[in-house]
Design a protein that fits this description.
heterodimer, A: 114 residues, mainly beta, B: 110 residues, six-stranded mixed sheet, five-stranded antiparallel sheet, 11 strands, 0% helix
């Protein structure tokens, strides 16, 4: 299994600002993903972070709002841009290096936008 | 219709009870079925996975998949207070995308 860390663990941000969340994996992985988890709702996939190329975004999520970088096989960042209170959520990074069922999650970043 | 349906609970049982957690799904292309456990303020932790139909056992945990009914279950035997968490089912087809249930909150009372 992979061990995944995220920074920051939580933050309170003002409307209109941006926050960059970092995700670090302890080993090289093929796939990295970014999810959003809101209370009472299932995890929603934001995008797949592709190493060396642009991220693949799911319906309803756009690069201008959620720019993603993946400079190597162990690290990725997600930026939440021009934040509004509706962006308040938990943002989770996950990674998969082996079988399709092997998706491991970081501890999450709890974001509150005021 | 949601891809995956899961009763959110909450579910409260006495210590030692057998717990049954369930999900239904609509997409017959799903082949991989996972169960995650998520403690409060932590990320989801992979508990078990099953490929296609059948049962899989790991200690006190048993995962069952019935593809004909599009129904999956997780059984926890001899439940412990440390099992108190939210349990999420997840499914995947040939692609990399996972479809998650909303999670069932479980409390095991000592």
């Amino acid at each position: 299994s992979a061990v995944i860390s995220q920074k920051p663990s939580r933050d309170i941000c003002q409307r209109g600002t941006s926050l960059t969340i970092q995700c670090q994996v302890d080993s090289q992985v093929t796939m990295m993903f970014w999810y959003r988890q809101q209370p009472g709702q299932s995890l929603t996939l934001i995008a797949t972070a592709n190493q060396g190329s642009e991220a693949t975004y799911e319906s309803g999520f756009v690069i201008d709002k959620f720019p993603i970088s993946r400079p190597n096989l162990t690290f990725s960042t997600l930026t939440v841009s021009n934040m509004s209170p509706e962006d308040s959520s938990i943002y989770l990074c996950s990674a998969s290096g082996g079988g399709i069922y092997e998706q491991y999650f970081g501890p999450g970043t709890r974001l509150t936008v005021t | 219709q949601k891809e995956v349906e899961q009763d959110p609970g909450p579910l409260s049982v006495p210590e030692g009870a057998i717990v049954s957690l369930n999900c239904t799904y609509s997409n017959s292309a799903f082949q991989y079925f996972m169960w995650y456990r998520q403690y409060s303020r932590k990320g989801p932790e992979l508990l078990m996975y099953t490929y296609s139909s059948g049962n899989k056992e790991d200690g006190r945990f048993t995962a069952q998949v019935d593809k004909s009914s599009k129904y999956i279950s997780l059984f926890i035997r001899d439940s412990q207070p440390s099992d108190s968490a939210t349990y999420l089912c997840a499914m995947s087809g040939r692609g990399n995308q996972f479809y998650f249930g909303t999670g069932t909150s479980l409390t095991v009372i000592p």
